[in-house]
Amino acid sequence: MIITISREFGSGGRELGKLLSEELGIAFYDRKIIEEVAKLHDLDPRYVEKVSDADIRTAYPMTIGRSFVFAPLLVDQSVKVHSSRMQVIKKLASQNDCVVAGHGADAVLQDLSPMNLFVYADQQSKLQRCLQRAEKGETETEILRQMRQIDRNRALFWEFVSGGKWGRKENYHLCINTSGKNPKALIPGLSEYVKCWFAMQQK
Amino acid sequence: MIITISREFGSGGRELGKLLSEELGIAFYDRKIIEEVAKLHDLDPRYVEKVSDADIRTAYPMTIGRSFVFAPLLVDQSVKVHSSRMQVIKKLASQNDCVVAGHGADAVLQDLSPMNLFVYADQQSKLQRCLQRAEKGETETEILRQMRQIDRNRALFWEFVSGGKWGRKENYHLCINTSGKNPKALIPGLSEYVKCWFAMQQK
Known about the structure:
8 helices; 203 residues
């Protein structure tokens, strides 16, 4: 039972994934992937996280064709991080049942037939959720810019890994709109749905 | 508790809606809407169904601007059918809890805060489902053409009623991919999810 969570920034998808893993009594991988990659290459987890969240095109500049990066060493490092992320996800997911949030896990784990969820919400709900956990002094405009940028980078990474288009419902088995909803309250229903889905898979 | 089902032709969405209504013990409206409209205007239900499934632009030719219809009486009749469909849906849904499949119910019932589901599947699964219930002699090519045409007309009607874009996940609260799945087996999970969703709505 492998469940992957792709999500828009601020939709509560990570929280939904974590709660779902607790309800199902299985592992949850998100931050753990970053830590494993950092350990593997003796890097600072904060650096690995930064590379993971960055625009994938800066790691693979040849895919753009119009830009040129003057720091081949840094590029090598980024490529190593991205490539290790995929290896770590595969290793973790093949060990036991789990929920994996982000990291293009749905595309990376395709061969293991995961159930792929996409979590999204309207702009207002996402902004509200981000404002609640924002650092002091962050303005609405800054948060909106951050939302756009993170989603863009997630989409670019996902499209790089899968060759498809990020966020198209056709790529997922269930698309969950959390607008105006508390993810926690959806968990009992969602976990039942997931169980039904996997029960059918085994037949 | 009003649940609307929009669905791609062949995705099993109608079946899913009917089973869901049975599981929840509430009414199911689909064919009933056609029958009520037919009764209202003393028309043959088959005619009402045909008009409902047809390209909405033939009913409201002024919206195209490039074509002209030489049968104003027939056009009047079509407009009457479409307009009555919306009135009948509103009347039925305001009377009791229900699942409504098709007829742009999510847009028509917007003021009653329904939960809107979209049911879809990959081409292969839809074709398989259609082949199982196809009339003798129907070829795969004919069925594929029918699938495209019905979905196109559904999209046109929905876009006419709502002003939005049919099938975009943002319009729905949950998007369900039935590829390779038997809708019946998803029902226990789906009905739990629906209950959670409405329980939160009431708070």
